[in-house]
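Exercise: predict the fold of this chain.
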Amino acid sequence: MFDMKFFIPAAKDAAQEKEVYEGTRKFVSQQMGAKLSPRRIYRLEFVHEGKAYTATVGETFERLDERVIAILLDTVRDLYFICTPNRGVLRGDPYLAGSSEIRSVEDFNA
């Protein structure tokens, strides 16, 4: 069984984790007009244009060459938002992955 405790990369403590995570959720919700799931997603594996990708919180997402800060799910459009510093956290729109592209999803355990 998968067992990963929730974290936000580079956060110095739980208070900063909460601030960054909630700020990212608010920003993406407003930017994208999304209704976000409360799920805390750790890893997403998907196929886009025939190529397999993995986005994992805390690791570099090769498609963008940026560290993944959070992965969010829009429950209305069934879209996953991969959030990096320049795509969904500090500025810009997150990287989108549609549910039809998803091969596996792993949530944080807490």
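Check your answer against the key: The longest helix spans residues 14-32.
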